[in-house]
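Hello,

Our lab assistant flagged a job as stuck in the queue for most of the afternoon. It eventually completed. Since we weren't sure the result was trustworthy after the delay, we are filing this so someone can double-check. Below is the sequence as submitted and the structure that was eventually returned. Let us know if re-running is recommended.
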Amino acid sequence: MNVRRERYRDRPRSKARAPHKVRSAAEPSLYVRTRGLLPPDLDAYAIYGTPVLAPCEGEVLATRSDLPDQKPMEMDPDNLLGNFITLHCHDLTILLAHLRHDSPGVEAGDMVKAAQPIAEVGNTGNTSEPHLHIHAVEGRVTDHDTLAFEGKGMPMTFGSRFLKRNDRVQTR
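-- returned structure --
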């Protein structure tokens, strides 16, 4: 991921894409996110347990790893972010949330390199199924409420590409 400051109007316009092919849940594919419809087993979700790589070189500001993974469709509104890591990179604070129980392998004050494995995707916090929540805000932000609700959001690119909600990123 290349974290950089850009204005929204400087973003490239998206190109029209072909419609997605519809696949059955039983058909193996990189595009199938789970085996079955709302399976109760976390291991049925393709992303669950996937390594999370540091998106940039920087300092770990905070981590949380004590929350247990929830069954799909069970949500924890009292702990919105679930287990998380915040990084300070390039005058931005990056939040990686909904991480697997006890998976963060870094602590506040650690320095990380881009693409370094730092955690695994989980299902913690206010989420209905396993996924990685990532966002960036301007400046060095250590207050979690500011980070989640008040920080000035900044656009991010992944491999020179701006993503939109529910896009997938693969690093193979």
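-- support follow-up --
The delay was a queue issue, not a problem with the job. The result is valid. Residues 42-154 form a domain with the Glucose Permease (Domain IIA) fold (CATH 2.70.70.10). The first strand starts at residue 51 and ends at 53.
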